[in-house]
Amino acid sequence: MRSFLVFFGLTALLTLAPAAARADDYTITIKDHRFTPEELKVPANNRVLITVINDDATPEEFESKTMKVEKVIPGKSKGVVRIGPLKPGRYPFVGEFHEAVAKGVVIAE
Amino acid sequence: MLGALIIVFREVLEAGLIVGIVMAATRGVLGRGRWINIGIGAGVLGAGLVAAFAGVISQAFEGSGQELFNASVLGLAVVMLMWHNAWMARHGREIAAEMQSIGTAVSEGAKPLTALAIVVGLAVLREGSEVVLFLYGIMASGTSAPSLLLGGVLGIAAGAAFTALTYFGLLAIPNRYIFSVTSWLIALLAAGMAAQSVQFLNNGGVLVVLDRTVWDTSWLLSEGSLFGRMLHALIGYTERPTELQIMVYIGTLFAMFLLMRLARYSPRERVAV
Prior knowledge:
Largest sheet of chain B: none
Number of strands of chain B: 0
Helix content of chain B: over 70%
Radius of gyration of chain A: 17 Å
Number of helices of chain B: 9
Oligomer: heterodimer
Helix content of chain A: 10-25%
Strand content of chain B: under 5%
Largest sheet of chain A: 5 strands, mixed
Structural class of chain A: mainly beta
Shape of chain A: globular
CATH superfamily of chain A: Cupredoxins -  blue copper proteins
CATH architecture of chain A: Sandwich
């Protein structure tokens, strides 16, 4: 039991750590299961905030293993995706529910 | 159709691996089938609810609701897995011994069954809600829906078959070793979940510390590949872990073994008294 308390205490402490995010704002729109833009340039080594707008009526999951993001964006709504800091390079992402067409890449430079 | 089958199979597979391990870990415990079924049933129900309220959850907490929800679900599962392993450390030997002598079910174990039923429920809820949203999208879009839907159903069946495979594979382990093997599997499972959980907190902008990527093994095994996804679900394989993820992974393993050790010692003290 004591270990549980310690565990919870640590979790609480970590949760309270300051959220010092320096975020730049970008937008990606989903329409007809495609992303616009399909190529997004962001600064490397920074935390970046991307607002994903889903203009379709159906839900989509914005997913990128390379950027460690998976987020469901319900139809006709939007969601905020936080990524980074990224090392310079190409980071592909997909709309998991329509992977054949919903593809894009974030370029960190 | 194949695309739909693969997507659904992937999600069901991740939950299925967890269910398979939990079933193997409760081998020989009376009434475990009922508990696991309750867990799966509650998970499916919960998945439907989460999918239905996906919009509400997303918008909660200034747009970080989904991340906080996922982090909490994973965190709760980690605590339940720790509870189970601690309990097993205390009683596992007796159960294994009884299983060997009688060869049938043992009545002990109401406690960890609740914990594991919750773990099963949470796993099904998390992966299931994505399946529900995906299938809902297919039905809503109309065109070519029947063949896609068939793909989805086949995906669920294939995932269930894989769960059975995991379970029977683990059953091949001799009685003597089964509990130590499943304890290890559960410890790694919990560590992986804890590391995922802190990443969700990071994505939600709640816990933005130690977020530098430490290494990149995507050249060796892509996390997007089927094997990568399986390892991700099983032991928390991440191709680009952050500093915090690595620390939490090791910390969870350490906490787990400390807890199991503490649990193991207590009965002897009681015998002494």
